[in-house]
Amino acid sequence: MKYLYGPVKSRRIGYSLGISLTSYKTCNFDCIYCQLGKTNNKTTERREYIKVSAIVDELKFWLGSKKDITQSLEYITLSGSGEPTLNNKFGELILEIKKLTNLKVAVFTNAAFLSDKEVRRQIAGADLIVPSLDAVTQELFVKIDRPQVGINIEDIINGLIALRREFRGKIWLEVMLVKGVNDDIRHIRKLKKIIASINPDKVQLNSPVRTTAEAGVLAVAKSKLKKIKEILGENVEIF
Ligand code: SF4
């Protein structure tokens, strides 16, 4: 399979089949903690990096040949080897998946394009959106996510607020915490206010455990994660 991967079992969303919508590794960020390594194609250009028709053909074949496995799947996830919303036809893919199967569709996104109404229109076909928000100040955002020039954290936050207003499915906000970078309690308190204005269904706290794009990127201690969870309040999980 070229565009499908897994199925993989994760504590966060259960058993899911993944789909890559971009070539490796195409992203508008270059996060210091990225498990895929360094971004070699850092871009904000939205285009059909991988043809939706080619993905659909592969998915049709997979669903037809793996009926037993399909029954135990919980989601088909748009994620993979880069930022899925960079593929400007990702909304079309969601609609095609819905024609092929009753499985729920989840989209993992770094949220950079959610201030764009057209992107929100396309993502509205999903059942679950897992956007990430690692920082609420531009300085920290640049430090941890290393976005393409011109991407602004305020726009991302406003996009997330608009998404919550319009989207009928579930939003699970992911926050990746890196020791000594964005885990300062003053930053966490600012984050709390922003999360309240976004109002996601839940918040998933994460910290790097595998190999990261940059050396020396460290996980936050479990005890501190627990403290941060307490500060952030209800509907917060640690992964
Ligand atoms: S947004 Fe995701 S894919 Fe892109 S660099 Fe960050 S962790 Fe990696």
Mean pLDDT: 96
* End-to-end Cα distance: 29 Å
Structural class: alpha/beta
Number of E-state strands: 10
Q: What's the quaternary structure here?
A: single chain
Report strand order across the widest sheet: 1-2-5-6-7-8-9-10
What order do the helices and strands follow? EEEEHHEHEHEHHEHEHE
Uncertain stretches of 5 or more adjacent residues: none
- Please state the CA-atom Rg, rounded to the nearest Å: 17 Å
CATH superfamily: Aldolase class I
- State the helicity in percent bands: 25-40%
For the record, the CATH class is Alpha Beta
Q: Major sheet, described briefly?
A: 8 strands, mixed
- Give the count of helical stretches: 8
According to CATH, what is the topology?
TIM Barrel
Instruction: Identify the overall geometry.
Output: globular
Bound molecules: iron/sulfur cluster
Q: Strand fraction band?
A: 15-25%
Detailed description of the structure:
This protein is α/β, with parallel strands linked by helices and 239 residues long. The protein has one domain: Alpha-Beta Barrel (TIM Barrel), CATH 3.20.20. The protein is 36% helix and 20% strand. The chain has helices spanning 52-65, 67-72, 90-100, 117-123, 138-145, 153-166, 185-198, 222-232; strands spanning 4-10, 14-20, 26-27, 41-42, 75-79, 104-109, 128-131, 170-176, 202-206, 236-238. Strands 1-2-5-6-7-8-9-10 form an 8-stranded mixed β-sheet. Strands 3-4 form a two-stranded parallel sheet. Strand 1 and strand 2 (14-20) form a beta hairpin. It starts with a strand and ends with a strand. The model has no long low-confidence stretch (mean pLDDT 96). The structure holds iron/sulfur cluster. Iron/sulfur cluster binds at residues 27, 29-31, 34, 36, 39, 82-83, 110.
